[in-house]
Fold:
Amino acid sequence: MSLIMALHKSVQTTRHTIKDIAISIRPYQWVKNVLVFAALFFSLSFLNPEAILFSMAAFISFCLVSGSVYLLNDIRDKEADSQHPEKKYRPIASGSLPVSTALTFFMIFLISGLAIAFLINWKVLFLIGVYLCLNLGYSFGLKKVVILDVMIVALGFLIRPMAGAYAIDVAVSPWLFICTLLLALLLVLGKRRQELAMMKSEAGSHRKSLEEYSLPFLDGLMFVSASAAIVTYSLYTIADDVVARFGTQWLIATTPLAIYGIFRYLYLVYIKKQGGDPTKMMITDKAFLINGLLWVAMVFSILYYSKLIA
Structure:
């Protein structure tokens, strides 16, 4: 009987650990890694099985490495997170997941992700390495440096589509990369604004760099980023190399959906006060999600039709 009880307790502990690990690696944040497929999508390679395979491998690699980064961040921020009104319930911050166990899974996810990147090609491995170094630098001090903290997070977004392009060996318009960087800055700045607005004078105890920010300053940076993102996306759709590659000028028709998406995000941040977790916000807001799906469907239709008549 004692053996059965011990076995049952062991199974329960294992399930609890797996649940805590699953929460800590933030699977819902893997939505960001979908940017890896941008090159597959915009290069018209989505009908190439080999390109799909390499893109999927790059996506999995980023999921594993980003999961390891989240574990490391939670370990490093354990004390600060324990003072946050929401983050204090995270497994590591609350003490539910031991640091030693989190470190073990950090190594498992990291080594697995780097191994997959190595199997794709050295360029993808290099970019994954840059992504990892940026995040390690962020975790170990750079997150305290005003402006640089948001730039590092935004660069993480930019590296994903670059890795996707190198994974399938295609060229992507520089306008698309610039637009991705600006949109990433908008999301990160929105998150900083929500943290500052929610925690006010105590914000610095949670995130040191927040002591150097103010709401008017963040508002200005957000509107600059949003405006520049709209302009660069519009220029991307009518760029000569893009029109020549796709054989169509109709990508400009997707601009209203892109503008609506940016405006909807600003509405959610400023009116609904939901900028604390941009990824969760975007996948749970019906209007934003429907608009995103319509944008994808419209871009796909335009590119696929242009390829059929070429």
Remarks:
- The chain has a mean pLDDT of 86.
- Residues 57 and 116 are 7 Å apart (CA to CA).
